[in-house]
Specification:
The protein is α/β, with parallel strands linked by helices. The protein contains twelve helices and ten strands. The protein has helices spanning 2-13, 44-47, 53-56, 75-83, 102-107, 110-127, 140-149, 178-185, 195-200, 207-226, 250-258, 290-307; strands at 60-64, 89-93, 132-137, 160-164, 187-189, 204-206, 228-229, 235-241, 259-260, 267-272.
């Protein structure tokens, strides 16, 4: 009954399929993700397209953000890695269809979102980089897992796969009804903690993109049921908040159980005592605690350690 009432309310509130977007919203015609204008500040393939022999062996981490987000989601990791002189190169990939107008987002598919991840990987491989890892947050995670399942990362097998609050089972079960009620509501909207978030996340989420989100998590859930074998010497690390309003904690369990390893690689699952979805991004959030900051630093240090790990 509660779900029915909520659905009716959503239909009433969103009966106008054209949201009122302002110039202060990422969804509008003024704000765009900075990686579109200056890719050399975000993508290793643009920053170092012709690496030296030494640079070809440096750890490169391809960072994929979540649904409705932007490259900003990984700014803090890049800045921290630079501050401690980690020796890691980080490619902050902008998912296809993201970081642009509402209409661009509305017209995109999950394959479009994923394409930019694969494109950066191919460019790095072509340039000669040999030590490539992937890190994803939220929806970035199933997009990466699907690439593993489809054997799209076999040319240079990943050094590490690191997943932050992966979504396979949504905490909000209404997403499963996107195909039914989506055409009626047109879009949903969210409230932000700060103006900073407003500039880097979509306020309005078209129902078409919600259906794409449902499609990719459904596809990957079935792939995990089939079983996915990690490439030889590719390690897997999963970090999951125990209290998460976006991704159910069972998502991490399904991934851990659905991905198989051999004697040369490893997989780790870390359940984090946090109520933040994507606890590696703190800037722009309200009510951040000292413990949140400690958790973020601990995860960043582990990411750097794992990325620099020398394979036997």
């Amino acid at each position: 009954m509660k779900i029915l009432i909520l659905l009716i309310s959503l239909c009433i509130l969103s009966c106008n399929n054209s949201p009122s977007i302002t110039d202060q919203d990422l969804d509008g015609n003024v704000l765009f993700d900075p990686s579109i204008y200056q890719p050399e500040l975000f993508l290793v393939s643009a920053y170092k397209p012709n690496p030296s022999d030494k640079e070809k062996n440096m750890p490169v981490l391809i960072a994929a953000h979540g649904y409705s987000a932007s490259t900003f989601e990984w700014d803090e990791l890049r800045k921290y890695a630079d501050s401690v002189k980690s020796g890691i190169l980080i490619s902050q990939v902008l998912l296809g269809g993201h970081g642009r107008t509402y209409q661009d987002f509305k017209n995109s598919t999950w394959r479009d979102w994923q394409a930019s991840i694969l494109n950066e990987y191919k460019k790095l491989v072509q340039a000669g980089y040999t030590n490539i890892s992937f890190i994803g947050s939220s929806t970035g995670c199933p997009l990466i897992i699907n690439l593993l399942y489809e054997n799209s990362l076999s040319q240079v097998p990943p050094h590490q796969i690191i997943l932050i609050d992966p979504i396979i089972i949504p905490s909000n079960k209404i997403l499963s009804l996107a195909g039914i009620v989506g055409p009626m509501i047109g879009y949903t909207s969210v409230n932000f903690d700060s103006e900073l978030e407003r500039k880097h996340w979509y306020r309005y989420r078209p129902q078409e993109t919600l259906q794409e989100l449902l499609d990719i998590v459904t596809v990957v859930r079935k792939e995990l049921e089939d079983g996915i074998v990690l490439p030889t010497q590719t390690d897997l690390s999963i970090y999951k908040s125990t209290y998460d309003e976006v991704a159910d904690r069972i998502s991490a369990i399904l991934i851990y159980n659905g991905i198989e390893i051999n004697s040369l690689n490893s997989k780790d699952l870390y359940m984090i005592n946090s109520n933040i979805h994507v606890m590696t991004r703190l800037q722009g959030r309200s009510n951040i605690t000292d413990n949140d900051i400690l958790i973020q630093k601990r995860i960043f240090d582990q990411i750097i350690e794992k990325s620099n790990k020398t394979k036997k």
